[in-house]
Design goal:
2 domains; single chain; about 130 residues; 8 helices; mainly alpha
Length: about 130
Amino acid sequence: MNEILFSVSRRVFSTAALSLRQTSPENARSLSEIDRRILVAHELGHDRLHKKIAPLVGFQETGMFIKSLPTEYEANLFAADLLIDDDELRGFLNDDDKTHSGAASELGVPIELLDFKFRLMEHKGLISLY
């Protein structure tokens, strides 16, 4: 089990490190703790969901929260699901005084990640957005 975790961790962190290296040095240094957590969760999503196509497609990251590429969209959904607890978010949704940006702020995540979580929760039938 530890060997598997080490192998996954090594791949994910190597990919995240590559992602950081491919950004400008100024941007890499300025990434916040949450952005780093999102980056690692996103790359973990690729590792778990796209192992078979990763060697064929290669590294294509151009920014966070990309919705146009299916693999990026799926990795963002994975990151949102990993980093945002369903019940905690539902608690915010039940609070009439909370806005989506207020919930994102209190959860310590960007509103864009919250949007992915909303889509996932709606798909699971946990909430209705409309």
